Design the sequence.
């Protein structure tokens, strides 16, 4: 199978390319290399590398020529710095996806399309009120966050809520610019599938970590930020009270999920998660344990508007539709991540 991987030189894309090449697929990588000084060493020697971005029509024509499947990983990731990033996110993520789909349309592509999405499309996770059942938590206010009131309350009665797993049919409620672009990426991809009869799968990644994760930048994931702090001999700074819950899933499992998705024709969105949620504080402690003599994490009470409190996936659909279940456990993965190379 000839597979185009956009963003194939990146953190997740590179792991996908390695697995595709290892099993004998022909891999075409389209990457701007904006995050690299030169082609990274981890790219398989057999891969065809096309350097360019999703705004270049000629580059896209070359990239999509003759491919049987597309694995769309290219995106500007993370929350960014502030709303001033909005135009860059929309141009790279919405515009880039639109340009890719137009190039596929022009060559009458009706093969398999797998797109990278994210758990951020859900906004706050799923909650249950003892009196009112399942409810949608309202965005947390700066007044509450400043006062250290981090837990969402029932919008009807103000009572404390119990966290529940989020299934794929939960309402989408993006609460930052990156999240909004991921919702649009999904919508455009599924519209393409309906127009062309291509089969389309959106993989909603939860908190991905592992080797070659980007280093300490405003766009890096929290695991990389903590790891960078520890390498510098500094204590990881844990925002809020450290009890916010996430699902940390290893990049090796995420890459395997992409191959499983490429090998099926199932249409729809799937959570890609470990199924074993942990708090951000627990993650900081597990990572610090991998550094001898490292300072203990510090809970700061700081916060960011747009962050959500709890997002934990229901992993059942991915198991049923794709045959995917995470294999790398939290303790094993974090112990390895303490020594993994970063980018």
Sequence:
């Amino acid at each position: 199978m000839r597979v185009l991987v956009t963003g194939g030189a990146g953190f997740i894309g590179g792991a996908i390319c390695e697995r595709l090449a290892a099993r004998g697929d022909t891999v075409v990588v389209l990457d701007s290399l904006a995050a690299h000084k030169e082609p990274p060493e981890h790219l398989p020697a057999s891969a065809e590398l096309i350097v360019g971005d999703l705004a270049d029509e000629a580059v896209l024509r070359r990239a999509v020529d003759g491919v049987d499947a597309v694995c769309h990983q290219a995106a500007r990731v993370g929350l960014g710095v502030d709303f001033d990033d909005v135009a860059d996110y929309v141009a790279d993520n919405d515009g880039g996806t639109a340009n890719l789909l137009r190039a596929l349309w022009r060559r009458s592509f009706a093969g398999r399309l797998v797109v990278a999405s994210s758990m951020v499309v859900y906004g706050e996770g799923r909650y249950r009120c003892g009196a009112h059942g399942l409810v949608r938590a309202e965005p947390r206010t700066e007044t509450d966050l400043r006062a250290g009131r981090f837990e969402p309350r029932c919008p009807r009665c103000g009572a404390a809520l119990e966290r529940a797993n989020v299934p794929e049919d939960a309402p989408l409620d993006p609460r930052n610019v990156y999240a909004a672009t991921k919702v649009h990426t999904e919508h455009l991809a599924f519209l393409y599938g309906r127009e062309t009869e291509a089969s389309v799968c959106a993989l909603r990644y939860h908190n991905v970590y592992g080797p070659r994760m980007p280093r300490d930048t405003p766009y890096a994931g929290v695991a990389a930020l903590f790891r960078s702090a520890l390498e510098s001999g500094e204590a990881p700074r844990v925002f809020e009270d450290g009890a916010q819950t996430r699902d940390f899933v290893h990049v090796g499992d995420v890459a395997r999920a992409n191959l499983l998705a490429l090998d099926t024709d199932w249409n729809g969105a799937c959570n890609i998660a470990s199924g074993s949620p942990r708090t951000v504080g627990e993650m900081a402690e597990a990572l610090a344990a991998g550094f001898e003599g490292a300072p203990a994490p510090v809970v700061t009470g700081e916060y960011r508007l747009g962050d959500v409190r709890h997002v934990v996936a229901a992993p059942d659909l991915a198991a049923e539709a794709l045959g995917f279940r995470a294999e790398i456990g939290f303790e094993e993965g974090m112990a390895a991540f303490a020594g993994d190379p970063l980018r």
